[in-house]
Amino acid sequence: MTGRPRDPAVDDAIRRATLELAAEAGAPGVTMEGIAARSGVSKQTVYRRYGGKGEAILDALAWFAAARLPTPDTGSLRDDICVLLTATFAAQQGVSGVLNRALISEALQDENFTELLWKRLTGPRREEVAKIIRRARDRGEVSHPDEEFLIDLVFGPMWYRLLFDRVSLDRGYAAAIADTVAVAARLDGGEAALAP
What pTM was computed for the model? Predict the structure, then answer.
């Protein structure tokens, strides 16, 4: 016998509450009790859904990213990456950046949480970039054989600056990364492509 199905409205209320608390007081201000009080659901309901506040934050952030971050299709690899990163960087200036830093901190201390972070947030965001790269490959813009490497070029600089210099995540930096990815995408991945 199975229990009652989860109510999506309750899930969304919990996610909104989590984001609101983080916006007001940062990740340390998010507690399971606070999420319950802000969302109007019982603590038992919150604890049934999440093993701790890290999982609640992760779910809220994945929900936010899926709803608000675009997977553009401009017809240009460079422009698609620029649009995606510009929106992503704008989100990182607010609550998204605060929570991403908290999630990385937890992931560094807990391998199980690292796997959960990859499954719920990192992996899906990488898959959106993979879609962009595959479309560009179909248009003849990508000859580099290593899709994962190109995705690393998109997100690696963001994570570095998110950890050490979040303020510099701006439109200019997004454009610079997009330019670099567009050039790298046309290489064949071998040493000959890098020769002067």
Answer: 0.86
